[in-house]
């Protein structure tokens, strides 16, 4: 059976109209590259197939400090309970060898009131934790008991020193201080002093300063050598203005760290479009000494190509209010658009006229915007003036004297005289 033909022509149907509509180009998202350093500073690196696991046991203290808290508490509890049980067994054996467990024996005991394994376990806890209840105690009859007492005291002191030191180091780790060192969410590239610059903003939320603060930048990318060797993580050091001027930063207020994109910069050949398609990652490392504890701390973050804004600049956040400098951290990562050439720094060095033309265009656009604003203000003021004059006219028209009628009596009747 043949299909029925539609009354509406095919070119005016939905498929035909949809085919005639202009289609927008579809851009596919670039595959997200794994970050080497996360935004919170943690290293995105997994160690696999380590054959020499015994090397971690050679540095037991560092291994315990690096463990998570739940594992540290489990090891802490297990170590103490195991030592108590071990020496409880030793005290029970001493009492058993001396015959103290015999209920009918009336002689002097090695350890008084130790008549079972439970009482030996309680006595072991009392000795190691230095709890003296007064009921259980050793006597001078057994040199073996004195030896066991000395050994348990020494072992208990070692366990206490290691475990308490481990917990203290975990609570006083330098990365806790790094939680109050903040970085801007995005990095920007703009013109500063007639040069393209890569800029970030850093700040310290605490009043206690970081002594001798230094900032290092590194660009991490996948490169291939002329010999064909592929380097998946090639780290390139990036020079900053602070490193050129001095060795450290005075991080009293938030600072903008600037990297001039020159011939020695790995960003020298990248334009705005090429930057979005590149797979580079800029790592920022802030190091310094904590003023209160004297411990060296380090804060890290990174910026991938999607987090680098071309043609933006950070807004000012430090103002002077009543003789005090105030920092508005709500605008810490805010940026504004500025006139910036979209070409690479190499092209700017080869053709300086590009920068001049860009600045002239931005100046003209700025002047045009000012003119538009002034004209709009004038029009608004004229409208307001016209509205006020019209209202005055209406008010004045209301003040015109209306006609008043007077009735004057006459002989033949009433005559009406109108007076205005």
UniProtKB/TrEMBL annotation:
GO terms for cellular component: monoatomic ion channel complex; plasma membrane. One of its GO terms (molecular function) is ATP-activated inward rectifier potassium channel activity. Keywords: Ion channel, Ion transport, Membrane, Phosphoprotein, Potassium, Potassium transport, Transmembrane, Transmembrane helix, Transport, Voltage-gated channel. The chain crosses the membrane at residues 71-94, 145-168. The record marks 160 as: Role in the control of polyamine-mediated channel gating and in the blocking by intracellular magnesium. SUPFAM superfamilies: E set domains, Voltage-gated potassium channels. It is found in: Membrane. It is a multi-pass membrane protein. GO terms for biological process: nervous system development; potassium ion import across plasma membrane; regulation of monoatomic ion transmembrane transport. Residues 365-396 are annotated as: Disordered. Residues 377-396 have a biased composition (Low complexity). It catalyses: K(+)(in) = K(+)(out). Residues 37-173 form the Potassium channel inwardly rectifying transmembrane domain. The keyword Ion transport applies. Residues 181-351 form the Inward rectifier potassium channel C-terminal domain. This is ATP-sensitive inward rectifier potassium channel 8.
């Amino acid at each position: 059976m043949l299909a029925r033909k539609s009354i509406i022509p095919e070119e005016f149907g939905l498929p035909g109209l949809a085919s005639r509509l202009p289609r927008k180009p579809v851009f596919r998202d670039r595959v997200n590259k794994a970050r080497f350093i996360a935004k919170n500073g943690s290293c995105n690196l997994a160690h696999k197939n380590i054959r020499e696991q015994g090397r971690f046991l050679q540095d037991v203290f560092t291994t315990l400090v690096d463990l998570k808290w739940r594992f540290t508490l489990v090891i802490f509890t297990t170590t103490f309970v195991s030592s108590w049980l071990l020496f409880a067994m030793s005290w029970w054996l001493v009492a058993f060898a001396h015959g103290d467990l015999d209920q009918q024996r009336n002689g002097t005991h090695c350890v008084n009131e130790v008549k079972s394994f439970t009482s030996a376990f309680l006595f072991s806890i009392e000795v190691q934790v230095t709890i003296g209840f007064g009921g259980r105690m050793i006597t001078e009859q057994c040199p073996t008991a004195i030896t066991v007492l000395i050994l348990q005291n020494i072992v208990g002191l070692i366990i206490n020193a290691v475990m308490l030191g481990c917990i203290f180091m975990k609570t006083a780790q330098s990365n806790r201080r790094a939680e109050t060192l903040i970085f801007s969410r995005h990095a920007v590239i703009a013109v500063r002093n007639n040069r393209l610059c890569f800029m970030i903003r850093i700040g310290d939320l605490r009043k206690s300063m970081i002594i001798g603060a230094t900032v290092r930048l590194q660009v991490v990318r996948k490169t291939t050598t002329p010999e064909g060797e592929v380097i998946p993580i090639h780290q390139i050091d990036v020079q900053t203005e602070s490193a050129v001027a001095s060795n450290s930063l005075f991080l009293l207020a938030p600072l903008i760290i600037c990297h001039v994109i020159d011939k020695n910069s790995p960003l020298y050949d990248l334009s705005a479009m090429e930057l979005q398609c590149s797979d580079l990652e800029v790592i920022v490392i802030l190091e310094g000494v904590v003023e209160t504890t004297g411990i060296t701390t380090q804060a890290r973050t990174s910026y991938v190509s999607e987090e680098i804004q071309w043609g933006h600049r950070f807004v000012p956040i430090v103002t002077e209010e009543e003789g005090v400098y105030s920092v508005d951290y709500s605008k810490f990562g805010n940026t504004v658009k500025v006139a910036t050439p979209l070409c690479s720094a190499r092209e700017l060095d080869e053709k300086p006229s590009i920068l001049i033309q860009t600045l002239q265009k931005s100046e003209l656009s700025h002047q045009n915007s000012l003119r538009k604003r002034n004209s709009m203000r004038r029009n608004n003021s004229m409208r307001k003036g016209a509205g006020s004059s019209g209202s005055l006219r209406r008010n004045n028209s209301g003040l015109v004297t209306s006609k008043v009628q007077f009735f004057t009596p006459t002989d033949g009747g009433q005559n009406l005289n109108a007076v205005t």
